[in-house]
Automatic annotation (TrEMBL):
It comes from Venustampulla echinocandica. The keyword Cytoplasm applies. This is Phosphotyrosine protein phosphatases I. Keywords: Cytoplasm, Hydrolase, Protein phosphatase. The active site is at D111. Residues 1-137 form the Phosphotyrosine protein phosphatase I domain. GO terms for cellular component: cytoplasm.
């Protein structure tokens, strides 16, 4: 969901020319090759994001060279990514996506997978807020 929201946010902002590539992946190989959960897709569609297409993949050490930023959705995944980053040489800045929550304390994106449908709406709201705040904080000289 975070990738779809971030892509959409960037495409509707003056930051489009500053972001060249957006991707998402997991730290485990649980759903390799799978499409996003149907509840994720319906949540995105409910908010006008109808062009999102994704196939699950597992993070590679080369991703730390390929990308400037790598966001973890929660602290457990952040720890896993930090271990992978130690083996990788690269420029990527690794952090919790929720560091851009606009609060003093970093938030974790809730994992709605095992919960009720409203969890997907909460995760969507978080991803929108984090995406907008990331762009605002990372590129402060760009007028929204």
């Amino acid at each position: 969901m975070a990738e779809g929201v971030f892509r959409s946010t960037v495409s509707k902002s003056p930051h489009q020319h500053l972001i060249s590539e957006v991707d998402s992946c997991g730290t485990g190989a649980y759903h390799l090759g799978s499409s996003p959960d149907s509840r994720t897709m319906s949540t995105l569609e409910d908010h006008g994001i109808t062009d999102y297409d994704h196939e699950a993949r597992k993070i590679q050490t080369s991703d730390f060279q390929r990308f400037d930023y790598i966001f973890a959705m929660d602290r457990d995944n952040l720890r896993d990514l930090q271990r992978i980053q130690q083996r990788a040489e690269g420029k990527a800045k690794l952090m919790l996506f929720g560091e851009f929550g606009g609060k003093k304390k970093a938030e974790e994106v809730i994992d709605p997978y095992y919960g009720a449908r409203d969890g997907f709406d909460i995760a969507y709201e978080q991803c929108v807020r984090f995406s907008k705040n990331f762009l605002k904080e990372t590129f402060p000289d760009v007028d929204p």
